[in-house]
């Protein structure tokens, strides 16, 4: 990465203006708004913000950026968590938010083609009458393009997979402005190199996703819930492991640790037992869900589960899951005005209880008060450490704790991020994790983006 | 691809001998045996066959091949179908068959680490007592390394996914002899570029897989079967589509067309109704399987299914599925001494009936007698055209029919191969399918293998 990223801003700006007219913005407010995501990384505003309406727009913009060797950064909803969109070397931010058309729904084939700027909830609304749904749910109302670019996943990944498993095809703009189509609408293919999966999770550093074809699923006839507290995280993980081995097709399995439960009790006036608690969701038919709930209840009993409760009516389900839904609000309410250093790791499930226990011990030793929530079936958990803006010592303490959390996860055969991605925040950890593969990643980056214009300073 | 692939064979041979001793073979019989797979492509023997015992062996061999710029081709069980292993430019074949250790089974994490030469049935035997299984089943008793390298899938892909979804990590040797580890044992990761999936299905042209970590599943408590004939393939596909939309978790859904049923009746003395027939397998608990069978039966009725029959006992299941299991033997028995030109395409399921009908019409018009079998839930089907060795006219007719079959599949939004891969046989089709992405594939190949020593003449 050369330190000098200067380019002829006036020349580029004029040429872009010819293409985009008033869809090119230089306003400080708009630039600032596009200069950060939801992470603690400080704003780094792009020089220009270009609003694209089509794949052709994106291709034209990137071609001009290539001509001027100017950085180009794709922007969806700005909900990333590791500084993915911050324009640390300036350049052009391409806002894809206006590319929000749901283009084609194929109900028989159970797929949908969307522009990259379509948001998750918008898609869900659009599909409501089809009996189908797109299940990947990272929490935030992100754009589908952003979700693909970061390789997002979430609470339903256990059952339905992450973005990696649910993108069938994509249209991309490469660093030279070429438009490529990757994948097909066929359910599987062994035709040539899997470039589609190389692009998913590449965080805009190899190309910009402009359109996606996504896999859909039938909406379950019944969605039912369950909640169960356990004496220890280890007992919970053992119960979850047996449930998975028994092929109980759970749709969601969410962990909240004692501190998370305590906080939400205080915040929302609940009286959940302060213990590691598992929140479950079952999808299926009335018969299969009843069978699954019964089977899970027996497993929970075997591992000392404390009063497994199950519910099927929407109202009862909402009540059961309320603690989980309020978790983030509870955490925020106890940390007004603070920045949240949000992080995640993912480990083999046999190491999950130990990993969480080690993290809790480390936090205690360093006076960090941070709850743990996680997708226990995937071995993935999150924590948010709250830091007063400007308190550098506290930030350093928090970053040290994250570093140790990641290093322990790597030593256990895990990964430095299960779903948030690398962005700016985890570049050093990526090197620790993929020592032998980093050269290969750099080779591919250099081959596809020789001038390093695509979201420079991110991932590698 | 330069026409001149000459290299100093004696020099390379001497250096390899120092490393491998009598694990280097120059015998014509052994070279011939390693010069072809199960396809109709003529033998192209490598100059040398090297038997590797370890990843380090492979690294040393590849380093020497890189030094001499000699082609290097990985060989597993030789069960590929598109000329993947044929040494069309000579060079060194690395036989990985002796790397057949199942290294570690993690029952809690439901994964297993194997050397690349472990075969599918061997792994199945090894796992028998664990209550877990590895479900990807391409039919042949291939090596797991070969299955990963070709992106194999098969009858159970509908439920469990293809190799793409079931490899968690791999150790690879790259073109310069470097050893890299890709992926982790964590169930998901968004850490950096997904090089693992770039390698799966790259057919030994970007690197050689030497070790794999695979995802395992709990063995179902009950495996039950069903069979149902339909008036038309369209009716069958409609029933299958509704079953998938209804989230009936079918493990296998296999189609045999009328000709396939007729042949197997003649061969095995069966009296199945000569009609498009669907073979089903259900995995689950006694309650869930009974529910699934009942639901599927109702759907079959709705689409004119003729007498859906279901069975749970191993003996009854075997009887129901006998026609499917005998299909290949039946076809072979009617074509003694002929070469089978085996091919597959995959289309969106809404196009499957039309695609099969068009193919049947084309075959009829060209006097080709070839049955169709397929994984109907994936939109993937296979056909084998039998050709007398030396009958060039018949081979040309067959290849013309395959070309039209592929082109129709591409026009329908499908892919030129669902599971067999590109090898030598489908390189031109790959270009038709991925016009815009071919440059990108070539860029990556050139970046990772600048001297084009890794399985040259395959894929691109």
Helix and strand arrangement:
The structure is a homodimer of 460-residue chains.
Chain A: H1 9-20, E1 24-25, H2 28-33, E2 48-51, H3 55-68, E3 72-75, E4 92-95, E5 102-106, E6 111-115, H4 120-127, E7 132-133, H5 144-150, H6 157-160, H7 163-166, E8 167-173, E9 179-183, H8 195-199, E10 208-215, E11 217-218, E12 222-229, H9 233-245, E13 250-256, H10 258-268, E14 277-284, H11 286-302, E15 306-311, H12 314-325, H13 327-333, E16 339-346, H14 352-365, E17 372-375, E18 380-387, H15 392-411, H16 427-433, H17 438-448
Parallel strand pairs in A: 2-4, 3-4
Antiparallel strand pairs in A: 1-2, 5-6, 6-10, 7-11, 8-9, 8-10, 12-14, 12-15, 13-14, 13-17, 16-18, 17-18
Helix pairs in contact in A: 1-3, 9-11, 10-13, 14-15
At a glance:
Two copies of one chain form a homodimer. Chain A has 460 residues and is of the alpha+beta class.
* Rg over alpha carbons of chain A: 23 Å
Oligomer status? homodimer
Low-confidence stretches of chain A: none
State the CATH class of the domain at 102-218 in chain A. Answer: Alpha Beta
* Percentage beta strand of chain A: 15-25%
> Main β-sheet of chain A, in a few words?
7 strands, antiparallel
Inertia-based shape of chain A:
globular
Helix content of chain A: 25-40%
CATH architectural grouping of the domain at 102-218 in chain A: 2-Layer Sandwich
What structural class should be given to the helix and strand makeup of chain A? alpha+beta
Question: Which sequence of strands runs across the widest sheet of chain A?
Answer: 15-12-14-13-17-18-16
What's the helix count of chain A?
A: 17
């Amino acid at each position: 990465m050369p330190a000098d990223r200067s380019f002829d801003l006036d020349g580029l700006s004029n040429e872009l203006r010819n293409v985009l007219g008033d869809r090119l913005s230089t306003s400080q407010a708009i630039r600032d708004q596009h200069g950060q995501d939801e992470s603690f990384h400080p704003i780094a505003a792009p020089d220009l913000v270009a609003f694209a309406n089509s794949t052709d727009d994106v291709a034209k913009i990137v071609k001009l950026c290539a001509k001027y060797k100017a950085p180009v950064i794709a922007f969806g909803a700005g909900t990333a968590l590791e500084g993915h969109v911050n324009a640390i070397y300036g350049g052009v931010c391409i806002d894809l938010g206006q590319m929000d058309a749901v283009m084609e729904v194929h109900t028989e084939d159970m797929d949908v083609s969307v522009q990259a700027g379509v948001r998750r909830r918008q898609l869900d609304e659009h599909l409501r009458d089809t009996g189908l749904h797109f299940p990947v749910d990272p929490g935030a109302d992100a754009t589908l393009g952003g979700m693909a670019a970061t390789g997002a996943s979430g609470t339903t990944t256990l059952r339905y997979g992450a973005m990696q498993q649910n993108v069938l095809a994509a249209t991309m703009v490469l660093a030279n402005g070429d438009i490529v189509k990757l994948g097909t609408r066929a359910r599987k293919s062994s035709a040539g190199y899997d470039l589609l999966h190389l692009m998913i999770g590449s965080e805009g550093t190899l190309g910009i996703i402009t359109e996606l074809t996504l896999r859909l699923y039938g909406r379950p006839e019944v969605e039912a819930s369950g909640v169960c507290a356990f004496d220890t995280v280890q007992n919970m993980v053992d119960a979850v492991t047996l449930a998975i081995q028994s092929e109980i097709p759970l749709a969601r399995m969410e962990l909240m640790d004692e501190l998370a439960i305590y906080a939400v009790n205080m915040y929302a006036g609940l009286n959940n037992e302060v213990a590691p608690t598992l929140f479950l969701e079952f999808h299926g038919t009335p018969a299969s869900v009843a069978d699954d709930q019964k089977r899970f209840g027996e497993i929970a009993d075997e591992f000392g589960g404390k009063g497994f409760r199950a519910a099927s009516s929407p109202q009862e389900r909402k009540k059961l899951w309320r603690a989980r839904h309020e978790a983030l609000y509870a955490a925020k309410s106890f940390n007004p005005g603070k920045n949240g250093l949000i992080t995640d790791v993912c480990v083999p499930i046999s190491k999950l209880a130990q990993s969480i226990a080690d993290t809790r011990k480390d936090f205690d030793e360093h006076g960090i008060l941070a709850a743990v929530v996680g997708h226990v079936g995937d071995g993935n958990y999150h924590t948010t450490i709250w830091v007063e803006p400007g308190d550098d010592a506290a930030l350093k303490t928090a970053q040290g704790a994250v570093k140790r959390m990641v290093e322990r996860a790597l030593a256990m055969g895990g990964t430095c991020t299960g779903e948030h991605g690398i962005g700016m925040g985890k570049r050093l950890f990526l090197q620790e994790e993929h020592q032998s593969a980093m050269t290969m990643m750099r080779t591919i980056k250099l081959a596809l983006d020789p001038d390093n214009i695509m979201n420079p300073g991110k991932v590698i």
